[in-house]
Amino acid sequence: MLKPIYSLVLFLFLSNFSFAQNASEVNIIPKPKQVTLTSGNFQFNPETVFVAQSEEEKQAAQVLIERFKEAVGWELQMTTETKAGNSVQFEKSGGLENEAYELKINENGAIITASGASGFLYGIESLRQLLPSEIENIQQTTSEVAWKVPALTIKDAPRFQWRGLMLDVSRHFFKKEYILETIDRLAFLKMNTLHLHLVDDQGWRIEIKKYPKLTEIGAFRVDQEDKAWNSRSENDPEEKGTYGGFYTQEDIKEIVAYAQKKGVTVVPEVEMPAHVMSAIASYPWLACDDTPIAVPSGGIWPITDIFCPGKETTFEFLEDVLTEVMALFPSEYIHVGDDEATKTAWESCASCQELMVKEDLENVEELQSYFMKRIERFVNAKGRKIIGWDEILQGGLPPSATVMSWQGVEGGWEASKQGHDVIMTPTFPLYFDRYQGNPDYEPLAFDGEITLKDVYDFDPVLDSMSVAQAQHVLGAQANLWSEYIPTEAISEFKIYPRLAAVAEMDWTPKTATDWSDFSKRAQHLMKRFELMGIQYSKSSYAVTAAADMDLENRKIKIKLENEFPRAEIRYTLNAPLDASAKRYKTPIELKKTTQLQAAVFKDGKQMGDTLTQDFKFHKAAGKQIDYLTKPHKNYPGNNSSLINVLRGSKNFHDGQWQAWINDAMEVVIDLGQTEEVKSISLGTLENQGSGIYFPVEIMVLVSQDGENFKKASTFSRAYKANSSSELKDFRVDFKAKKARFIKVIAKNATDIPNRGNGFLFVDEILVE
Predict the structure, then answer these.
(1) Of 29, 201, 315, 653, which residue is most buried, by most CB within 10 angstroms?
(2) By C-alpha distance, which of 293, 285, 271 is closest to 211?
(3) pLDDT, tens digit, 9 for 90 and up, residues 655-700
């Protein structure tokens, strides 16, 4: 029997647990550090007043005042006089940390306590997320909504000081208005850093008064947007660029001032010594050989046109540029890039070699370190600090530099060991230019898939770090590189809802994070995104199908999944899909040609795209196949990949693809017995940006004995530029023939401009 004291404790625990479980309206992201629920609620009405004394309190109050005006039509008032009830009040407390806040709500109203502007703002944002989601409506709601918030106390503070998003505005330019919208959304998620990648090979995006050609020439490139990013031709330096744009210094001042009101620091990045072809196109003397070049329209690799450290004029230029940049951006940090520099020009440059002798530098890696240490001294002298990508470690890390670790987490681990601050931005899972789900249903992206759960599961502090190393982790940042982001709508699609996972990663104590709990709150948040007009991705609701082929028995087992726990998946076989479809519970077995459709449903409504997959049991399915030319070692699939009924996706790393590059594909299929055949279809992929091209010729030959083959038909097509990623079956028809063996030869594209030979990717050979 339990003793009375233990019985009482257990009763209180279970009571609190039960109450919390019923408080479904508490769906704040990022999850607060501490929430204590009490009974009752407070309801806003047209007479609710905001009591604010200081300017920072008034700015915070204005967030909700504007929301009520836009979503409801109310003109809520602000006063400096304390009100006894029906009010939202602010109290200043020096005892709280800079970004911490306390929010207390009872039936009379709410009180937000903080030590400064950020805390007041975050308190308001939490109060905002406690309101019904209709508060986010960008058009006035016509429904009757009870504007209630639950009675509770929140005590909250961030885990990390750096909670960021990087926007690459160089590869594709985003307008000032979009930057301002992004700042609003960062503040909504309690994120405090916007890193602007203002300079890269393909565009210089910030006005520099002393060097006007940087924007007259460097901000614009020849328009080749109809071609794949990595298949664009080299431009003539004499041809005027028309595609691009830049921010004036007045634009930058407006962006920075707006961000300051929202508790967001804007950190500029001025790349060096590489990723600067836009600067060299403007001023050729910045390079070692003074040769005129054009602003490139697409991908460049390796990056050999870089700044020359052997010329004193290069450092004069950079100091002038940084002086103007620092006058516009009051941030503590200035990002200076320092990544992906191919330094072959330095090795043959007389000025660089002379400098290396003078400074006793052994190699060009040490010359790069000299370059960055000199820039660091200049920036430090102005009272600022530099950040560099993790290549800044090469040749020796500048004394006070902060490292942004992108090539995995190793750079961050090493920098923290050396006593340097680090910001974790590893490609996986924080590069948002990757797909969020099945590439067949998403805009073109870089290779690979990074789901919402992948982001949420990452921890910036590694298990292998010591306590001292962990203290050097400033936080984490999502990066959106824009090679494949031509529009602001696609930018939004890539950022949301994954940014919410970064927000919680950076804010919430690790011990309080839980994917199941977050996924529930994320679904509420996505409803808010919809009302806010954000074109977010619904890939988290996507259904994925994992299929296994039993070749011997010619049957397939299909397992359906969704990343949200306990998702309601419904499916059909050879029938239209709706809410009445069968609910998925166990793997589905198929033995004949079938079209599968599946989707996630919630409360009778379909939540994401419909997964549609055709499983075609053709005559070659499960038969013997011999490879006369071997697939590329990086994309070997398996011995049955081309006749296993399972199809590949636009994610060419999904294991269903086999690839050839220097040799044509040549295979022989043994049907096991003589069959009448009249066509073959070759399942292929084209992604020219990744060097993958449709075949230019397909030849089909047939045989009874496997030795003597006769041509059945040939299909030919010319190479064509294609800027998208595309799946396509090429069908070759011929007069019906009796055959046991079928030889298929498919030739890949060769001599492609700026590429050479291209990959041929094949996932299935369908025989009919």
Answers:
(1) 201
(2) 285
(3) 899 999 989 999 999 999 999 999 999 999 999 988 999 999 999 9
Give the strand pairing for 385-389 and 333-337. parallel
Amino acid at residue number 31: K
Domain ranges in the chain are 11-156, 162-539, 542-615, 624-767
The CATH class given to the 624-767 domain equals mainly beta
Would you call 200 a catalytic residue per the annotation? Answer: yes
Report the chain's mean pLDDT, rounded to a whole number: 93
| C-alpha separations of 622 from 64, 552, 635, 667 in Å | 63, 7, 20, 15
Distance, CA of 608 to chain centre:
19
340 is catalytic: yes
- The 3-state DSSP class for residue 200 equals strand
Candidates 56, 57, 136, 200; catalytic one: 200
DSSP letter for 756, please.
B
Annotated catalytic residue, options 340, 414, 530, 663: 340
pTM above 0.70, yes or no: yes
Fold of the CATH domain 162-539: TIM Barrel (3.20.20)
Instruction: Convert the pLDDT of each residue in 33-76 to its tens digit.
Output: 999 999 999 999 999 999 999 999 999 999 999 999 999 999 99
Question: For the structural domain made of 542-615, what CATH number should be given?
Answer: 2.60.40
pLDDT digits (tens, 9 = 90+) for 606-659: 999 999 999 999 999 989 999 999 999 999 988 888 999 999 999 998 889 999
472 is a catalytic site residue: no
Going by pLDDT thresholds of 50, 70 and 90, the confidence category of residue 25 is: low
Candidate list 275, 335, 420, 472, residue with the active-site label: 275
- Nearby residues of 266 by Cβ (< 8 Å), 6 or more positions away: 194, 196, 255, 256, 259, 329, 331
